[in-house]
Structure formats: structure tokens, C-alpha cells
Specification:
Blueprint: H1 5-11, E1 18-21, E2 25-29, E3 37-43, H2 58-74, E4 83-85, H3 89-92, E5 101-105
Antiparallel strand pairs: 1-2, 2-3, 3-5, 4-5
The chain binds adenosine monophosphate and zinc ion.
């Protein structure tokens, strides 16, 4: 997707503050952090929303989750705790339409979220 901000990060057209990368997944610091640690984990392949995942994407969905846990470990927040969350469409607060998992930590995260 040439017009997608996160695809541009995957292609290198825009350089994110990368914290983790492998064959399938890229993770970088959020430009507007909502916690001391705020990382976005994205699949390198464009998928617009959670609603667009299908059975063939099951492994990729798992890889996003595993990457989130690896990043929490790498960033030293795994034991204290963190939140991994995906927003879907306008009602869920999604503003960038390339799926991403937010990894938030470093402050006391309340529940329910706003
Ligand atoms: P969401 O609202 O769930 O779609 O999350 C999109 C996230 O992307 C927000 O937390 C934004 O702060 C973040 N974001 C937008 N533009 C950039 C950028 N250029 N680099 C890093 N994060 C970004
Ligand atoms: Zn994209």
C-alpha cells in the first residue's frame, strides 16, 4: 500500500525509531507516547484492520503477540507488567489503518481504558 504510513516504515521511506524487527514484524516507538514505554508492533504485510484478518493470517497474528512479549522482556517491563492492545475502527480508537499492537508500560495502567 503506497499511501499507508506504516507501509512506508516497512519500506524505509520513513525511518521509525525501531526497537525490534524480524522477517514478519516491525516494532517502533510511538510518536506520541501514552506511557513511558509505548511501542507499536506491526506486520510487515499490509492488513487494514483486525476485521480483515482471515484464517491464513493466524500465524502472523500470533507472531505479533509473541513480538510484543519479546519487546516487553527486552525493554525490562515484562515482570512489572504491561498492556498489549489493538484498536479496531473508529469506535475502537483506530486512527492508522494498518494493524498494530500497542505495547504500553512504565506507569500504573488503569482498567477499563477510556
Ligand atoms: P491507533 O489510534 O490505535 O490507530 O494508533 C495509531 C498510533 O500511531 C498512535 O498512537 C499514534 O501516536 C501513532 N503514530 C502516528 N504517526 C506515527 C509516526 N509517524 N511514528 C510513530 N507513531 C505514529
Ligand atoms: Zn500498510
Amino acid at each position: 500500500m503506497t499511501d499507508c504510513l506504516f507501509c512506508k516504515m516497512v519500506s524505509g521511506e520513513i525511518k521509525p525509531d525501531t526497537v525490534y524487527e524480524d522477517e514478519n514484524v516491525l516494532a517502533f516507538r510511538d510518536i506520541s507516547p501514552q506511557a513511558p514505554l509505548h511501542v507499536l508492533v506491526i506486520p510487515k504485510r499490509h492488513i487494514s484492520t483486525l476485521n480483515d484478518l482471515d484464517e491464513a493470517d493466524a500465524q502472523l497474528a500470533g507472531q505479533l503477540t509473541l513480538a510484543a512479549a519479546k519487546i516487553a522482556e527486552q525493554e525490562g517491563v515484562a515482570e512489572a507488567g504491561y498492556r498489549a492492545v489493538m484498536n479496531c475502527n473508529a469506535g475502537g480508537g483506530q486512527t492508522v489503518f494498518h494493524i498494530h499492537m500497542h505495547v504500553l508500560a512504565g506507569r500504573n495502567l488503569t482498567w477499563p481504558p477510556g
